């Protein structure tokens, strides 16, 4: 069995990817410092797949510990690197914390790969690298615009660090640029677990509907869009997770055409904030308490993916629609609530 390292494997996208990898027969080892996730996620992964992933808890910014890890696990065939800080607003307040965490960990990993001849890395990038694109949909060749936040800048710089490292090593990389992942596994055993007040739309919707939050604020009703609210390409987290398995298969089977490949991971469909709310209300029967307020600083008007390259070249396509996304997010919120009560 091919051994795959998943950093950040107890996190939101990481945990869903571990499940898909295990179900495809991969031997998964997780490294996570649990700074934004819980150890119980391991049990929930095991409950879904019947296989407990190996797990080591340490911080990948710790160079000696990371070097020691790779020395002990030099049979790893590919790395999927999720572990990173990801809150846009927090990154504005604590830029050095973001640069140190997101970039030092990446450099330690690339060093470990290079020393131990671990050839393949799949990196979590973001559509944030495109800023507000002039042309929609955005393809992988669309221009990279100046980042709107230190968080976004860490993704751009990380892409450059990987590109430069590939020029002087034998490593291969796949950069996956995610659009907006939402939803949860159909088992409702894993999902998004935001600490404190959620920044993102979907957890704020479900927490409002269940009564943890009083009211959802819709940021901006005066965008030049069909209903005045901002548009994003929401993608089911399970579809996103499956794309990682396809990317790993492609690298291990030496199907990559270049040592650096880049794919957009979206559905190709844009939904406005109000359309997501409508979908949620329709699929769950819940009435959402919301109010339209001022725009949130730093938000772009609209973005959605050109999925042609990922569909044709990677051979992957997002399958689930927005209704499946909002319903699965609600089932996850209900399961969390039931667990709290028991
Ligand atoms: N929104 C609201 N109310 C909320 C939260 C969000 O109206 O309480 C709106 C936002 O204004 C935006 C849309 O819902 O129009 C989606 O917002 P999210 O915060 O869920 O997602 P973003 O598109 O802002 O952020 C995503 C990722 C980031 C990434 C960023 C790049 O979560 O990691 O895209 O733009 F950096």
Overview of the structural elements:
Helices cover 42% and strands 17% of the residues. The protein has helices at residues 12-23, 40-49, 63-72, 88-93, 95-116, 150-168, 201-210, 237-252, 273-284, 308-314, 322-341, and strands at residues 3-7, 27-31, 54-56, 76-81, 120-126, 172-178, 180-182, 216-219, 231-232, 234-236, 260-265, 271-272, 290-293. By secondary structure, the chain is an alpha/beta fold. Strand 1, helix 1 (12-23) and strand 2 (27-31) form a beta-alpha-beta unit. Uridine-5'-diphosphate-4-deoxy-4-fluoro-alpha-D-galactose binds next to helix 6, helix 7 and strand 8.
Please estimate the helix content. 40-55%
Give the spatial strand order of the biggest sheet: 3-2-1-4-5-6-11
Give the overall silhouette. globular
- What's the CATH class label of the largest domain? Alpha Beta
Q: Architecture of the largest domain, CATH level 2? A: 3-Layer(aba) Sandwich
Relevant CATH superfamily of the largest domain:
NAD(P)-binding Rossmann-like Domain
Bound compounds: uridine-5'-diphosphate-4-deoxy-4-fluoro-alpha-D-galactose
Radius of gyration: 19 Å
What is the total tally of β strands? 13
Counting helices, strands and paired strands, the structural category is alpha/beta
Our count of domains comes out at: 2
Task: Encode the helix/strand succession as letters.
Answer: EHEHEHEHHEHEEHEEEHEEHEHH
Strand percentage, roughly?
15-25%
